[in-house]
Amino acid sequence: MILTGRSSEGAMSALAIPRPLIEDFRGFYQELKRDGRLDEWSRSQCYLVAANMMTGAKCLGVDSCALEGYVGEQVLHLLGLSPSDWIVAMVIPFGYAAVAETPKTRAPLDELVI
Description:
114 residues, two-stranded antiparallel ribbon, two-stranded antiparallel sheet, 11% strand
């Protein structure tokens, strides 16, 4: 599961980000917040992280699947987190497949491209 914090100050201090970088980011953050785009931008950043996590996991032989259809507030409740502080951007289970993948069959490139 990928969570994103609603408070930039808390998230950045938790990651020990240098103060000058925080100050540089602050204007961008304020603009996103003022325009009501902060949650959307935060989720987009999480999608980039998720793609890398899923690709890396597959390289290690671990499968994953990005899920939709969850109720974010209920997920946060299960984790004991406050919806006023956190957003559930994605739910991604990682594990090993119970059944081996079937080989993919593809038409030759010269049959597809003229």
